[in-house]
UniProtKB/TrEMBL annotation:
Residues 62-251 form the ABC transmembrane type-1 domain. GO terms for cellular component: plasma membrane. The keyword Signal does not apply. It is found in: Cell membrane. The lineage of its organism: Bacteria, Bacillati, Actinomycetota, Actinomycetes, Propionibacteriales. The keyword Cell membrane applies. Belongs to the binding-protein-dependent transport system permease family. This is Carbohydrate ABC transporter permease. It is a multi-pass membrane protein.
């Protein structure tokens, strides 16, 4: 009997990847004294989740993260789609140079530009505000790149037919290109939401007001105030992960389809 090596290896790697997540979930439902005991808890309890939701401003942290994530996602998709459409379908001098300049920003990570970005935000009066959390997070070259690749595969005959009907650039973009972009926009919305929900470094830099803390800062802050209460920290981590799991499960099919249509692997 022939044993298939790669399927077994894939299952082993999957178990290794999922095991820490299951441990966090189970530990969040244990009493404090059983957190570091291996195996099933002696009793299951929801007290940890209840304490985190009622005694700690976790709903406020989640609301702040939701406002930032949803706003950045909607605004970024709108502007990225317009930029990608111009770079993919319009002919103008310097188009290749502009696209290369945008793509070159992928080589620069956030820690490298953190100080100048903070100084610019300070000059613009964006410190300790939702605008400071949202505006610098809108631009991302990967979104423009993915949308441009998708638009290159749309048949030009559709735009030519719109031209015959008297449509200008804006009408072609709004009535023809944008409706055809729903699959890739859906996949990008998943990526943008997850990235901004899990953002930590920039919110830590730009905000000092406790009322503007996002969920990742809130969970991180618990490690100081509740350093010995790991059951509460794990419960907060579980609550913080719920929206990301829901969004990923809802959009994973669109995400895979978009990767296939844009030629990314």
């Amino acid at each position: 009997m022939r044993i298939r090596f790669f399927p077994i290896l894939a299952h082993v790697l999957a178990i290794i990847a999922v095991a820490p997540l299951l441990w966090i979930l189970i530990s969040a439902l244990k009493p404090a004294e059983d957190v570091f005991n291996f195996g099933w808890p002696s009793t299951w309890t929801l007290d940890n989740l209840q304490y985190v939701l009622l005694k700690i401003p976790m709903p406020r942290f989640m609301l702040n993260s939701a406002i930032v994530s949803v706003t950045v996602t909607v605004v970024a998709l709108f502007f990225h789609s317009m930029a990608a459409y111009a770079l993919a379908r319009l002919r103008f001098p310097g188009r290749g140079i502009i696209f290369s300049g945008i793509m070159s920003t992928l080589l620069v990570s956030l820690p490298v530009i953190l100080v100048p970005l903070f100084l610019v935000a300070k000059q613009l009066g964006l410190l300790d505000s939702y605008a400071g959390l949202i505006v610098p997070s809108i631009f991302h070259a990967f979104g423009i790149f993915l949308l441009r690749q998708y638009y290159l595969n749309i048949p030009r005959e559709l735009e030519e037919a719109a031209d015959l009907d008297g449509c200008g650039y804006w009408r072609r973009y709004w009535s023809v290109i944008l409706p055809l972009s729903r699959p890739v926009l859906a996949s990008l919305s998943v990526l943008f939401f997850l990235a901004n929900w899990n953002a930590f470094l920039w919110p830590l830099t730009i905000t000092r007001n406790p009322d503007l803390r996002v969920i990742q800062l809130g969970v991180s802050g618990m490690q100081g105030q509740y350093a010995s209460a790991w059951n509460l920290i794990l419960a907060a981590a579980v609550i913080a992960a719920i929206p990301t799991v829901v969004v990923f499960v809802a959009g994973q099919r669109r995400l895979v389809d978009a990767m296939k249509t844009t030629g990314l692997k």
